[in-house]
Every structure is written in structure tokens, then in C-alpha cells.
Design brief:
The longest helix is centred in the first third of the chain and has 28 residues, at 2-29. This protein has a 6-stranded mixed β-barrel with strand order 1-5-2-4-3-6. The protein has a 4-stranded antiparallel β-sheet with strand order 8-9-7-10, with helices on one face. The protein has 2 domains: 61-175, Beta Barrel (Barwin-like endoglucanases), CATH 2.40.40; 187-259, 2-Layer Sandwich (Alpha-Beta Plaits). The chain has helices spanning 2-29, 61-67, 155-161, 197-210, 236-246; strands spanning 82-91, 112-114, 123-128, 134-141, 149-154, 169-175, 187-194, 215-221, 224-230, 255-259. The protein is built from 5 helices and 10 strands, in the order H-H-E-E-E-E-E-H-E-E-H-E-E-H-E. It has 261 residues and is α+β, with helices and mostly antiparallel strands. It is an enzyme of class 4 (lyase). Residues 1-26 form the signal peptide. This is Probable endolytic peptidoglycan transglycosylase RlpA. It is found in: Cell membrane. GO terms for molecular function: lytic endotransglycosylase activity; peptidoglycan binding.
Length: 261
């Protein structure tokens, strides 16, 4: 009897070892394959920013100016009369072949841009601060209406200055002297975009109550609902006052001072 018990114990131990070996082998066969992930580059890595920024060759600004239609660009031989730095973006497809703010038909491949306050028709030299690429553009539209943005380039200009792929980039904006029929300009305030039309209508009602002589319109756009208010005399001073007031009752609203001409 003792011998039988010993044999059964040895057999049980043997079966247990075989089962364990089978489980280990099965585990090896079903192990998840992990793709190799190279370590991240060091913080001080000097990677080139031009390799993926643009495939376009640098533009010769003098050649660009001379090859443009007569009167398309202003004289750029003097010093800029306006300079700012900030984030530029670009726009194209959904606005292509639609009317721009200056009345022309927007062509996404032309060297044009949108700015909120520069006179229509102004010539701007845009410099990509990361790559040094430059392009001349003509202001034909208004915008960008997004926090922190200073310029909206056409798709063609974005490609030329190396921000098409990235979508946005830090730029230097330099505007040259431009002859305008009204040097003081005509101004309005545009605010939004609101997610719901009700929010836009609420602001419109408040503006009409406070500025009952002004023209207030509500309209929809690709990014939401907007409200625009035109002071009676379209003066910049009054428009600035309205923009300041809008931010007081509704901090979430983003009023933009916009030049019309």
C-alpha cells in the first residue's frame, strides 16, 4: 500500500510539472509583440525646422513684387509703418472663389491675407520667425477671429512662407505705407463665435438696448454665431468703447475691433 501511494505521488508530481511546462510554452506563444520605440531626442537637440516646414523654395521678394500686376503691391523700398509679431494661420478651401471683405473674389492661391485693422490693399511683408522665409501679401480680407492670432494667410502665401503643413507659426508682420481715401478708417466691432444662436441673440438685444442708434446684426459662420455692431459714425473711438463694454457683462465674449475699409 505504501509503495502504491508513493507511485501515485510521483505520477501526480510529474503531471503537475508537465502542466506547468505547457502553460509556460503557451504563454510564450501568445506573448504580445511590442513595436520598437526609439528613445526621444535630447532636450538640446538641434533638429532642423525647415525640413518639414515647407517644400517651397525661398521667395525673392523683389522678383515677387515686380512680377505682380501693376498696383497690386505698395512701394516696399521704405521703412515699414506698422510692425507686430504673433501667430499666423491660413485659410483656403471653404472660402475659395467667394467674395473677400474688399469685394474681390478670394483666390486661395494668390498672395493675399486677412488682418483686422490694416487698411484694405495694404502690402505686408511676412517673415516666418522659425525659418526666416518671407513673402509679400496684399490685405484683402478681415480676420483672423481667433484668440492670439494676428494674420490669416491664403493657402498660397502659407506655402510660400513655410506654415502650410504646421497650420500656424510665429511671424513678423511689417506693413508699408498705403494711400487710403479715409486715413482715419471706418470701424466696427465683431464678437463671437457663440456656440448657440440664442447666446448671440442675447448679446444683440443688450447692444441694441445700450446703443439704440447703432446697427447691430447677428449672423452665422463656419465656426458659430457672430454679432457685429456698427457705430453711427463708424469712429474708432466709439468702436473701442463698445468693445470694452462687451467684455464687461460677458467675459466669455471675444470682441474684435475691425476696420471696414
Amino acid at each position: 500500500m505504501k509503495k502504491l501511494r508513493a507511485d501515485l505521488g510521483r505520477r501526480a508530481a510529474t503531471f503537475a510539472m508537465m502542466a506547468l511546462a505547457s502553460l509556460l510554452m503557451a504563454g510564450c506563444h501568445h506573448r504580445t509583440t511590442v513595436a520598437y520605440q526609439p528613445p526621444p531626442p535630447p532636450v538640446n537637440s538641434h533638429r532642423s525646422t525647415t525640413s518639414t516646414a515647407s517644400t517651397e523654395p525661398p521667395i525673392d521678394l523683389k522678383k515677387e513684387a515686380s512680377s505682380a500686376p501693376k498696383g497690386f503691391f505698395d512701394d516696399t523700398s521704405g521703412r515699414p509703418v506698422f510692425t507686430e509679431e504673433g501667430t499666423a494661420s491660413w485659410y483656403g478651401t471653404i472660402y475659395h472663389h467667394h467674395a473677400a471683405a474688399d469685394g474681390t473674389i478670394f483666390d486661395q492661391n494668390e498672395m493675399t491675407a486677412a488682418h483686422r485693422t490694416l487698411p484694405m490693399g495694404s502690402t505686408v511683408r511676412v517673415t516666418n520667425l522659425a525659418t526666416g522665409q518671407q513673402v509679400l501679401v496684399r490685405i484683402t480680407d478681415r480676420g483672423p477671429f481667433a484668440p492670439g492670432r494676428v494674420l490669416d494667410l491664403s493657402m498660397g502665401a502659407a506655402k510660400a512662407v513655410g506654415i502650410y503643413r504646421a497650420g500656424v507659426a510665429k511671424v513678423k508682420v511689417e506693413a508699408f505705407a498705403h494711400a487710403s481715401p479715409d486715413p482715419e478708417g471706418r470701424w466696427c466691432v465683431q464678437t463671437g463665435a457663440f456656440k448657440t444662436e440664442g447666446d448671440a441673440l442675447d448679446l444683440k438685444a443688450g447692444l441694441l438696448h445700450r446703443y439704440n442708434t447703432a446697427k447691430v446684426t447677428e449672423f452665422s459662420g463656419p465656426t458659430g454665431f457672430w454679432v457685429r455692431i456698427d457705430p453711427v459714425q463708424h469712429s474708432k473711438t466709439q468702436a473701442a468703447e463698445i468693445a470694452d463694454w462687451i467684455g464687461t457683462p460677458d467675459p466669455a465674449a471675444l470682441p474684435y475691433l475691425v476696420r471696414l475699409d
